[in-house]
Amino acid sequence: MITDPVTGYEYPTEWVKACSDDKNLRLVKEGLGVLTSNGEVLKRGFTTGTTAAAACKAAVLSLKNPVSTVEIRLPCDLVYCVFAEGKGGKGTSRKYSGDYKSDITSNILFCAKAKLKDNGIEIFAGKGIGRFERNTPRYRKGEPAISKTAMECIHSSVKEAVLASGISGVYIELTIPEGEEIGIQTLNPKVGVVGGISVLGSTGLVEPWDDHLSESAIERIKDKEKIVLTTGRVGMRYSRLLFPDHEVILVGKYMQKGIEAAASSKDVILCGLPALILKFINPRILEGTGYSTVEELSQSPQWNKIISDNLSGYKKKMPGLRVVLIDRNGKIAGDSD
Predict the structure, then answer these.
(1) How many structural domains is the chain composed of?
(2) Are 306 and 180 contained in the same domain?
(3) Quick check: 325 and 312 in contact, CB under 8 A?
(4) CA–CA separation, 184 vs 191, rounded Å?
């Protein structure tokens, strides 16, 4: 039996037997590979947050000695060795995206410069890291587009390097030379982030979400009586707590495929953060609201009514499907039942 250390999913024995490559099975056991139903293994990559942490840690460690790899404890609490060059206080790391072929930030270079200071840790987000051009529910105008989990990973990695180097404090400037150019090609401009890419990563790993992997998720859904379909890691975490007697399956953007595959199931729940799910059940939800994103729409005085109206409308269309919306702390924000 093999259990995915990232998701906790126990792979079916027939999937494991279908894979004859011991090296790939080792990747699966380590969490760096995802096993599919036909035995093929798709490699996970590292997020922008993990890559930034690696560059920063390499920069700090290289104040004492050159380095070519660093160990990073990811937000999912797994520790991996990440390629990063560090020499003379300068660290670099290129983003490895595994088998996620559509990752526009794949191989992008992160650079960090470290300087000694009297005490404490200071991290400055420089060129190529996007900044918010307007206030949002979680960020203020002008703040760098670095998620909380990514910043915690960067800071903890730097702290480890500071302690290992025996120094009292450090100032780090993190930059992404191609960030501004790549950022324009992402969804950042639509969500109010300009001047670069976002530094993100809820687990620290990039999932190889492609059609092949979707087929494996569909295989898991079939013939299960109680299922929770969820769109991301936050949804997966809290779905397991909210519905412990259900099989929780991460379907990402393939919600429709998941729902169709669960047609014969007795108890099906779609659970996760509001943005993806509300846009799925009502693609026109933002029209006429004056808001650019669902997250910003959530600050509207009519938010509770918007949730209620959309969930009740979808319930009439899909009476056999329960939709549960949660916030980032796991609190239920809406329930179609």
Answers:
(1) 3
(2) no
(3) no
(4) 12
Work out whether the CA dihedral 181, 182, 183, 186 comes out positive or negative.
positive
* Residues 278-307: tens digit of each pLDDT: 999 999 999 989 888 999 999 889 999 999
Domain co-membership, 152 together with 189:
yes
**38 and 53 co-located in one domain:** no
Of 150, 45, 154, whose CA–CA distance to 103 is shortest?
Answer: 45
Residues 6+ apart with CB under 8 A from 193: 130, 131, 132, 133, 145, 183
Q: Tell me the CB-side half-sphere exposure of residue 40, using CA atoms within 13 A.
A: 10
Q: How many CB atoms lie within 10 A of CB 134?
A: 14
Global pTM reads: 0.82
What is the spatial distance between Cα 205 and Cα 78, in angstroms, rounded to a whole number? Answer: 10
Rounded to whole angstroms, the Cα distance separating 48 from 45 reads 10
Q: Looking at the structure, do residues 286 and 325 belong to the same domain, yes or no?
A: yes
Rounded Cα gap, residues 167 and 332, in angstroms: 45
Domain identity same for 30 and 130: no
184 and 224 inside one domain: no
Do 59 and 201 share a structural domain? yes
CATH number at residue 30: 3.30.1990.10
Q: Tell me the per-residue pLDDT of 83-131, one tens digit each, with 9 for 90 and over.
A: 999 999 999 999 999 998 889 999 999 999 999 999 999 999 999 999 9
The whole domain housing 118 covers: 46-205
Residue count (the chain): 337
DSSP assignment letter at 95: P
